[in-house]
């Protein structure tokens, strides 16, 4: 149970890391946008994997975890990445 709590806290930290004030220079803006994109993708994958771990048992659970990681990563990417 401690591992699940730590995973939730790390996921929340990644999600909150995207909430930053607007920087001044364009290079800093590009870096922050890239960081938010990566953080959202990784955070979504973590949350999706945790959700998948609660489903099924045995081999089905492994497939659910893999699917949750993939789907969570895609959703996290879509929510945080701003493509020009």
Question: Topology of this protein?
Answer:
Layout: H1 2-17, H2 26-53, H3 59-80
Helix pairs in contact: 1-2, 2-3
Continuous helix count? 3
Mean pLDDT value: 75
Please write the string of helix (H) and strand (E) elements.
HHH
Proportion of strand residues: under 5%
Give the low-confidence spans. none
Would you kindly provide a brief summary of this structure?
The protein has 84 residues and is mainly α. The chain has a domain of 56 residues.
Descriptors:
mainly alpha; 84 residues; flat; 79% helix
What does this molecule look like?
- It is a single chain.
- With 84 residues, this protein is mainly alpha-helical.
- It has a domain at 29-84.
- Helix content is 79%, strand content 0%.
- The chain is built from three helices and no strands.
- Helix 2 (26-53) runs antiparallel to helix 3.
- It comes from Mycoplana dimorpha.
- This is 17 kDa surface antigen.
- Keywords: Signal.
